[in-house]
Amino acid sequence: MQFCERLVGKLRRSTLLIISGFTHEVLEKEVKPLVSSFLHERGLILSEEKTKITSITTGFDFLGCNVRRYNKKLIIKPSKESIKRLLNKARTLIKANIANTQAIVIKSLNSLLRGWGNYYHHVCAKKAFRKIDNEIWHSLWKWAKKRHPRKGLRWIKNRYFKVMGQRQWVFAAPICKNKPKEIRYLRLLKLIDIPIRRHVKIRADANPLDLKWKKYFDERVKRTRMLASSFSREGSLLLVSPLRMMFPEES
Questions:
Q1: How many C-beta atoms lie closer than 10 Å to residue 241's C-beta?
Q2: Residue among 131, 156, 121, 125 nearest 141 (CA)
Q3: Nearest to 130 by CA among 70, 196, 212
Q4: How far apart are CA 199 and CA 15, in angstroms?
Q5: Residue 228: pLDDT over 60
Q6: 48-62, 93-107, 210-224, 228-242: which range is least confident on average?
Q7: Which end of the chain, N or C, is more open, meaning fewer C-beta atoms within 10 Å of its C-beta?
Q8: CA 58 to the chain's CA centroid
Q9: Taking 80 as the threshold, does the pLDDT of residue 238 lie above it?
């Protein structure tokens, strides 16, 4: 479902939400009218165009993720549209930098890939990571051949791709020499190297208003400290412990 909030005659950014139910009929005939009425009383509008009722076995896209049940197991993974958008951006970036140095291409791609990979590293993304790495490799190989149409394939491979560890085709550019025979390389980030860390759900019996759970919630907040700091500097969001809000420590 998607709804919009009216503010002084203008539409603010729409808000997305998911509502689950046991049957299609319950959602269509009972839940949807109830939600629409609830929002209308508060000056909000339920978007009929964006509202979709579907089975979990069919799946749906939400915030760039595809949510679907496979053989009684719920799988959340990057949506096809999100993967397509990323690859289009990467290919456009590579083509636009045909005359720039390899290091500039790597820095630009690393910035794009790191942000996308960090967003999806909580879901089942390894298959998508591997596919994207492969597609970008093919685009970079075409980029390298186009820059040197008169050079042989072996020369191009040795010029732009290095052997690092167990990998034979690492897109890397030399940046400096620490010693006469030691060269440092700037290499392209591979999404497959980003570790998948599952989101840890809050315990069902945890109560943020109970002091005995203070340590538990403080530990959860600690893991999001960097995110909280980033958002608070922008003035948009501040993540704090619920217990500190209710029971501030004595100064």
A1: 20
A2: 156
A3: 196
A4: 22
A5: no
A6: 228-242
A7: C
A8: 22
A9: no
Do residues 197 and 122 touch, judged by C-beta distance below 8 A?
yes
Sorted by sequence, the CB contacts under 8 Å of residue 130 that are 6+ apart come out as 191, 192
Strand 73-78 and strand 161-164: the pairing is: unpaired
Tokens of 120: 């999806």
- Classified as helix, coil or strand, 147 is helix
Q: Which residue matches tokens 């948009």?
A: 236
CA-wise closest residue to 103 among 176, 202, 24:
176
Rounded Cα distance between 10 and 190, Å, is: 43
* Structure-token pair, residue 207: 């109560």
Amino acid at 231: F
In this structure, what token pair is assigned to residue 179?
């010693």
Angle between helix 80-96 and 126-147 (nearest 10): 20
39-80 pLDDT tens trace: 888 888 888 888 888 888 998 898 899 999 998 899 999 999
Residue type, 241: S
